[in-house]
Amino acid sequence: VRFKTGLIEDYLQKVENFKPDLIIYSVVEDCYLQCLSLMDSIKHLNIPHIVGGVFPTAAPEICINNELIDTIGIGEGEEIIVEIAEATRLKQSKKNIKGIWYKEKGKIIRNKRGPLASIDESIPDFSLFDTSRFNRPMGGQIFKTFPVETYRGCPFTCTYCNSPMNNTFAKKSGIANDFLRRKDMNLLRDEIRNIVDIYNPEFLYFIDDSFTARPKREVFDFCDMYEEFNLPFWFNTRPETTNLRMLKRLKEVGAYRISFGIEAGNEQFREKVLRRKGSNQE
After folding, report:
1. What is the 8-class DSSP label of residue 133?
2. Phi and psi (nearest 5°) for 109?
3. SS3 144
4. What's the CA gap between 279 and 8, in Å, rounded?
5. What DSSP string describes 92-118?
Protein backbone atom coordinates (compact mmCIF):
# COMPACT_ATOMS: atom_id res chain seq x y z
CA VAL A 1 0.00 0.00 0.00
CA ARG A 2 1.35 3.38 -1.00
CA PHE A 3 -0.09 6.30 0.93
CA LYS A 4 -1.32 8.96 -1.45
CA THR A 5 -0.85 12.54 -0.33
CA GLY A 6 -1.35 14.69 -3.42
CA LEU A 7 -4.14 13.99 -5.91
CA ILE A 8 -2.92 16.47 -8.53
CA GLU A 9 0.72 15.45 -8.23
CA ASP A 10 -0.12 11.74 -8.42
CA TYR A 11 -2.32 12.30 -11.44
CA LEU A 12 0.26 14.33 -13.31
CA GLN A 13 2.91 11.69 -12.64
CA LYS A 14 0.58 8.89 -13.77
CA VAL A 15 -0.23 10.66 -17.03
CA GLU A 16 3.41 11.50 -17.74
CA ASN A 17 4.46 7.89 -17.13
CA PHE A 18 1.60 6.27 -19.05
CA LYS A 19 1.63 8.70 -22.00
CA PRO A 20 -2.01 8.16 -23.02
CA ASP A 21 -3.28 8.93 -26.51
CA LEU A 22 -6.75 9.72 -25.13
CA ILE A 23 -8.18 10.43 -21.67
CA ILE A 24 -11.80 9.61 -20.78
CA TYR A 25 -13.35 11.34 -17.75
CA SER A 26 -16.65 10.22 -16.21
CA VAL A 27 -18.10 13.02 -14.12
CA VAL A 28 -20.98 13.58 -11.72
CA GLU A 29 -21.73 17.06 -10.39
CA ASP A 30 -19.92 16.78 -7.04
CA CYS A 31 -16.58 15.88 -8.64
CA TYR A 32 -16.80 18.26 -11.62
CA LEU A 33 -14.54 20.91 -10.09
CA GLN A 34 -12.06 18.23 -9.06
CA CYS A 35 -12.06 16.95 -12.63
CA LEU A 36 -11.27 20.44 -13.89
CA SER A 37 -8.33 20.63 -11.47
CA LEU A 38 -6.96 17.38 -12.86
CA MET A 39 -7.41 18.58 -16.43
CA ASP A 40 -5.73 21.87 -15.64
CA SER A 41 -2.67 20.07 -14.24
CA ILE A 42 -1.99 18.36 -17.59
CA LYS A 43 -3.25 20.92 -20.09
CA HIS A 44 0.33 21.62 -21.21
CA LEU A 45 0.53 18.04 -22.52
CA ASN A 46 -2.32 18.63 -25.01
CA ILE A 47 -3.74 15.11 -24.73
CA PRO A 48 -7.09 14.52 -26.49
CA HIS A 49 -9.93 13.92 -24.05
CA ILE A 50 -13.65 13.43 -23.66
CA VAL A 51 -15.70 14.28 -20.57
CA GLY A 52 -18.84 12.17 -20.14
CA GLY A 53 -21.19 10.96 -17.45
CA VAL A 54 -24.20 12.30 -15.61
CA PHE A 55 -23.08 15.92 -15.29
CA PRO A 56 -22.20 16.58 -18.95
CA THR A 57 -25.48 14.88 -19.90
CA ALA A 58 -27.46 17.11 -17.53
CA ALA A 59 -25.53 20.34 -18.13
CA PRO A 60 -23.76 20.09 -21.50
CA GLU A 61 -23.57 23.86 -22.08
CA ILE A 62 -21.74 24.42 -18.79
CA CYS A 63 -19.20 21.73 -19.62
CA ILE A 64 -18.52 22.51 -23.27
CA ASN A 65 -18.11 26.22 -22.54
CA ASN A 66 -15.34 25.59 -20.04
CA GLU A 67 -11.97 26.51 -21.53
CA LEU A 68 -10.39 23.25 -20.33
CA ILE A 69 -12.91 21.02 -22.09
CA ASP A 70 -13.02 20.49 -25.83
CA THR A 71 -15.16 17.33 -26.15
CA ILE A 72 -18.08 15.98 -24.11
CA GLY A 73 -20.14 12.80 -24.38
CA ILE A 74 -23.88 13.02 -23.73
CA GLY A 75 -25.81 9.97 -22.55
CA GLU A 76 -24.43 6.45 -22.63
CA GLY A 77 -20.80 5.94 -23.55
CA GLU A 78 -20.44 2.39 -24.85
CA GLU A 79 -20.51 3.39 -28.51
CA ILE A 80 -19.09 6.87 -28.03
CA ILE A 81 -15.80 5.75 -26.47
CA VAL A 82 -15.16 3.19 -29.20
CA GLU A 83 -15.75 5.77 -31.93
CA ILE A 84 -13.79 8.56 -30.22
CA ALA A 85 -10.87 6.16 -29.67
CA GLU A 86 -10.86 5.17 -33.34
CA ALA A 87 -11.12 8.79 -34.49
CA THR A 88 -8.17 9.64 -32.26
CA ARG A 89 -6.12 6.69 -33.47
CA LEU A 90 -6.77 7.43 -37.13
CA LYS A 91 -6.62 11.22 -36.69
CA GLN A 92 -10.11 11.53 -38.18
CA SER A 93 -12.81 14.16 -37.77
CA LYS A 94 -15.36 13.81 -34.97
CA LYS A 95 -18.23 15.03 -37.15
CA ASN A 96 -19.83 11.59 -37.53
CA ILE A 97 -19.63 10.54 -33.88
CA LYS A 98 -23.15 10.61 -32.47
CA GLY A 99 -23.69 11.82 -28.92
CA ILE A 100 -20.76 14.22 -28.62
CA TRP A 101 -20.26 17.99 -28.61
CA TYR A 102 -16.83 19.32 -29.47
CA LYS A 103 -14.93 22.47 -30.33
CA GLU A 104 -13.46 23.00 -33.78
CA LYS A 105 -11.87 26.20 -35.10
CA GLY A 106 -13.46 28.26 -32.34
CA LYS A 107 -16.96 26.84 -32.85
CA ILE A 108 -18.99 24.38 -30.79
CA ILE A 109 -20.29 21.45 -32.87
CA ARG A 110 -23.31 19.67 -31.39
CA ASN A 111 -23.76 16.22 -32.90
CA LYS A 112 -27.08 14.44 -32.49
CA ARG A 113 -27.42 11.61 -30.00
CA GLY A 114 -27.23 8.02 -31.18
CA PRO A 115 -29.49 5.10 -30.22
CA LEU A 116 -29.49 3.64 -26.74
CA ALA A 117 -26.82 1.05 -26.04
CA SER A 118 -27.69 -2.63 -26.07
CA ILE A 119 -26.95 -3.68 -22.50
CA ASP A 120 -27.14 -7.34 -23.58
CA GLU A 121 -24.01 -6.72 -25.65
CA SER A 122 -22.16 -4.43 -23.21
CA ILE A 123 -20.00 -6.73 -21.10
CA PRO A 124 -17.27 -5.12 -18.95
CA ASP A 125 -13.68 -6.35 -19.17
CA PHE A 126 -12.56 -6.57 -15.55
CA SER A 127 -9.06 -7.69 -16.54
CA LEU A 128 -8.28 -4.01 -17.16
CA PHE A 129 -8.46 -3.23 -13.43
CA ASP A 130 -5.98 -3.71 -10.63
CA THR A 131 -7.27 -6.67 -8.61
CA SER A 132 -7.25 -4.60 -5.41
CA ARG A 133 -10.18 -2.61 -6.84
CA PHE A 134 -12.44 -5.62 -6.22
CA ASN A 135 -11.82 -5.80 -2.46
CA ARG A 136 -14.97 -4.29 -0.96
CA PRO A 137 -16.32 -4.14 2.60
CA MET A 138 -19.74 -5.60 3.28
CA GLY A 139 -21.25 -6.50 6.62
CA GLY A 140 -17.97 -6.15 8.51
CA GLN A 141 -16.00 -8.35 6.11
CA ILE A 142 -13.90 -7.83 2.98
CA PHE A 143 -15.02 -9.71 -0.13
CA LYS A 144 -13.59 -10.06 -3.63
CA THR A 145 -16.62 -8.42 -5.23
CA PHE A 146 -17.70 -7.86 -8.82
CA PRO A 147 -20.48 -5.56 -10.10
CA VAL A 148 -23.24 -6.83 -12.38
CA GLU A 149 -25.89 -4.81 -14.22
CA THR A 150 -29.22 -6.61 -14.80
CA TYR A 151 -31.13 -3.56 -16.03
CA ARG A 152 -30.49 0.09 -16.79
CA GLY A 153 -32.79 2.93 -15.86
CA CYS A 154 -35.63 3.08 -13.36
CA PRO A 155 -39.44 3.24 -13.59
CA PHE A 156 -39.71 5.79 -10.76
CA THR A 157 -39.47 9.59 -10.86
CA CYS A 158 -37.62 10.57 -7.66
CA THR A 159 -36.57 14.21 -7.92
CA TYR A 160 -33.01 13.64 -6.62
CA CYS A 161 -32.09 10.99 -9.19
CA ASN A 162 -30.74 11.14 -12.75
CA SER A 163 -32.87 8.25 -14.06
CA PRO A 164 -35.99 10.40 -14.68
CA MET A 165 -33.74 12.83 -16.56
CA ASN A 166 -32.53 10.01 -18.78
CA ASN A 167 -36.13 8.99 -19.51
CA THR A 168 -37.01 12.57 -20.43
CA PHE A 169 -33.94 13.09 -22.62
CA ALA A 170 -34.47 9.80 -24.46
CA LYS A 171 -38.03 10.81 -25.36
CA LYS A 172 -37.19 14.43 -26.27
CA SER A 173 -34.31 13.41 -28.52
CA GLY A 174 -36.48 10.80 -30.22
CA ILE A 175 -34.12 7.90 -29.58
CA ALA A 176 -36.48 5.84 -27.38
CA ASN A 177 -39.85 5.92 -25.65
CA ASP A 178 -38.32 4.46 -22.50
CA PHE A 179 -34.75 4.55 -21.21
CA LEU A 180 -35.27 1.43 -19.07
CA ARG A 181 -33.94 -1.86 -20.45
CA ARG A 182 -33.61 -5.26 -18.79
CA LYS A 183 -31.08 -7.92 -19.73
CA ASP A 184 -32.13 -11.21 -21.20
CA MET A 185 -32.02 -13.74 -18.33
CA ASN A 186 -30.06 -16.33 -20.31
CA LEU A 187 -27.46 -13.76 -21.32
CA LEU A 188 -27.26 -12.54 -17.71
CA ARG A 189 -26.58 -16.11 -16.63
CA ASP A 190 -23.79 -16.37 -19.22
CA GLU A 191 -22.28 -13.08 -18.01
CA ILE A 192 -22.26 -14.23 -14.37
CA ARG A 193 -20.82 -17.61 -15.38
CA ASN A 194 -18.04 -15.82 -17.25
CA ILE A 195 -17.18 -13.71 -14.17
CA VAL A 196 -17.19 -16.79 -11.93
CA ASP A 197 -15.02 -18.88 -14.24
CA ILE A 198 -12.44 -16.18 -14.95
CA TYR A 199 -12.20 -14.18 -11.72
CA ASN A 200 -13.43 -16.52 -8.97
CA PRO A 201 -15.40 -13.85 -7.04
CA GLU A 202 -16.53 -14.20 -3.44
CA PHE A 203 -19.43 -11.77 -3.77
CA LEU A 204 -21.54 -10.01 -6.42
CA TYR A 205 -23.34 -6.71 -6.18
CA PHE A 206 -26.13 -5.82 -8.58
CA ILE A 207 -25.84 -2.16 -9.49
CA ASP A 208 -29.40 -1.62 -10.75
CA ASP A 209 -31.20 1.45 -9.44
CA SER A 210 -33.94 -0.71 -7.92
CA PHE A 211 -33.33 -4.42 -8.41
CA THR A 212 -36.86 -5.69 -7.67
CA ALA A 213 -38.66 -2.93 -9.62
CA ARG A 214 -39.50 -5.37 -12.39
CA PRO A 215 -42.22 -7.93 -13.10
CA LYS A 216 -42.40 -10.15 -10.01
CA ARG A 217 -42.16 -13.32 -12.10
CA GLU A 218 -38.82 -12.10 -13.40
CA VAL A 219 -37.41 -11.86 -9.87
CA PHE A 220 -38.26 -15.52 -9.29
CA ASP A 221 -36.83 -16.41 -12.71
CA PHE A 222 -33.62 -14.70 -11.62
CA CYS A 223 -33.56 -16.74 -8.40
CA ASP A 224 -34.02 -20.00 -10.30
CA MET A 225 -31.20 -19.03 -12.65
CA TYR A 226 -28.87 -17.83 -9.88
CA GLU A 227 -29.12 -20.96 -7.71
CA GLU A 228 -26.24 -22.63 -9.54
CA PHE A 229 -23.70 -19.99 -8.46
CA ASN A 230 -23.98 -20.19 -4.67
CA LEU A 231 -22.50 -16.70 -4.26
CA PRO A 232 -23.67 -14.07 -1.75
CA PHE A 233 -24.94 -10.84 -3.31
CA TRP A 234 -26.18 -7.35 -2.48
CA PHE A 235 -28.59 -4.99 -4.23
CA ASN A 236 -30.52 -1.72 -3.93
CA THR A 237 -34.28 -1.64 -4.09
CA ARG A 238 -37.46 -0.02 -2.81
CA PRO A 239 -39.60 -1.65 -0.10
CA GLU A 240 -42.87 -1.30 -2.01
CA THR A 241 -41.52 -3.47 -4.85
CA THR A 242 -40.99 -6.48 -2.56
CA ASN A 243 -43.08 -8.97 -0.62
CA LEU A 244 -42.31 -11.64 1.96
CA ARG A 245 -42.38 -14.56 -0.48
CA MET A 246 -39.94 -12.77 -2.79
CA LEU A 247 -37.54 -11.86 0.00
CA LYS A 248 -37.51 -15.43 1.33
CA ARG A 249 -36.66 -16.74 -2.11
CA LEU A 250 -33.91 -14.16 -2.61
CA LYS A 251 -32.41 -15.13 0.73
CA GLU A 252 -32.45 -18.80 -0.26
CA VAL A 253 -30.25 -18.14 -3.30
CA GLY A 254 -27.72 -15.87 -1.54
CA ALA A 255 -29.10 -12.39 -0.83
CA TYR A 256 -26.65 -11.26 1.85
CA ARG A 257 -27.68 -7.64 2.24
CA ILE A 258 -30.31 -5.32 0.78
CA SER A 259 -30.20 -1.51 0.78
CA PHE A 260 -33.75 -0.19 0.89
CA GLY A 261 -34.32 3.34 -0.36
CA ILE A 262 -36.63 5.15 2.08
CA GLU A 263 -34.97 8.61 2.05
CA ALA A 264 -37.06 10.40 4.71
CA GLY A 265 -39.48 9.66 7.53
CA ASN A 266 -41.80 12.57 6.73
CA GLU A 267 -44.58 11.29 4.45
CA GLN A 268 -45.56 14.75 3.20
CA PHE A 269 -41.95 15.63 2.33
CA ARG A 270 -41.45 12.28 0.59
CA GLU A 271 -44.53 12.67 -1.58
CA LYS A 272 -44.44 16.39 -2.40
CA VAL A 273 -40.70 17.02 -2.65
CA LEU A 274 -39.11 13.65 -3.46
CA ARG A 275 -42.11 12.28 -5.44
CA ARG A 276 -42.05 9.07 -3.47
CA LYS A 277 -45.46 7.78 -2.51
CA GLY A 278 -46.16 5.27 0.21
CA SER A 279 -47.00 5.62 3.87
CA ASN A 280 -44.71 5.08 6.84
CA GLN A 281 -46.90 2.12 7.80
CA GLU A 282 -46.26 0.50 4.44
Report:
1. G
2. -100, 125
3. strand
4. 47
5. --STT-TTEEEEETTEEEEPPP-PPP-
